[in-house]
Task: structure prediction
Amino acid sequence: MKTNNHQIVDYDIVLDEKFGAEGTPRRIEAEERAYAFYSGRILLDARKQVKVTQEELARRTHTTKSYISKIENGVITPSVGAFYRIINALGLRVEVVLPAS
Result:
């Protein structure tokens, strides 16, 4: 692991050591879990910011409180349709932007 005063210099080395090289099944699985966790946290933070309970969000999206909780805790990843229903129910928007050339 490449560190400098306990600061990570190259995080790819850390990931390679822990989960294997990029593209390996173990690394892909770890990345998917990380994406589920981070997207769940984003939705949780957004829900709290607009002061909506899990129960209310579930009602607005025709799901259950348990389903919303599982998404927010990274246990499951919502389908694209469910994701957009949640985003809309929170009054948010998704913007897809091409990188600058």
